[in-house]
Amino acid sequence: GDDFRRIDWNAYARLERFFIKLFVEEEDLTVHFLIDASRSMNWPEGAGEQNKLQYAVRAVGALGYVALTGLDRVTVRAVNANGQNSPNGVRGTSHLPAVRGKKQAITLFSFLQSLTGSDRGNGQNSSGRGIAHQLGAYAANATLVGPLILCSDLMDDGWMEGINSLAGRGF
Question: Do 80 and 125 contact (CB within 8 A), yes or no?
Fold first, then answer.
């Protein structure tokens, strides 16, 4: 009952048995990285001290590079950021739109280097809303669903609600 076009005729000629060709459709994955840039992630703020935000940025850089070399799309968003995301204090963007290809690694790395922590209270962004609200908003507004990596210390009340909204959307 199989379609004759899917029979592997070369294998039949060699082995005198029928084999059906099965195809796996390749998918374009979009790997989502969410970095918690709250004050709790940027602690301690001493000069030369490594903090959780710097480790999160390095992990996202490494994993993002792996995804880019695998020709997957990569998008990064800093949650709980107050807009002060450029090193010279100018308001910058806290979102890197989806990029693809190994050549976009420089774009990814320069975006990650421009991220700084929030100077607001723990778990709160500039509008006073915590990470749970921002994760829910990200789940509602994201167009391409795919694997998502959240780099956070989860020091916010209600974080599980945000995780559930992401999982409910298929991330």
Answer: yes
Distance CA 161, CA 136 (A): 8
- Rounded distance between C-alpha atoms, residue 102 and residue 105, angstroms: 6
Contacts of 111 (CB under 8 A, 6+ apart): 76, 96
Structure tokens at 102: 């190994």
Q: How is residue 100 written in tokens?
A: 């693809």
- Are 33 and 74 spatial neighbours (Cβ–Cβ below 8 Å)? yes
Question: Measured between alpha carbons, how far is 13 from 41 in angstroms, rounded to an integer?
Answer: 63
> Which residues are CB-neighbours of 118 under 8 A, at least 6 positions away?
37, 38, 39, 42, 80, 81, 82, 84, 124, 125, 126
**Residue position matching structure tokens 């995301």:** 85
User: Which of 54, 96, 66 is closest to 78 using CA atoms?
Assistant: 96
Bridge partner list, 30: 73
How do residues 114-147 score in pLDDT, each as one tens digit?
A: 886 654 444 444 444 678 888 999 999 998 899 9
Whether the ω angle into residue 44 lies within 30 degrees of 0, i.e. cis, is yes
Phi/psi at 79 (5° precision): -100, 155
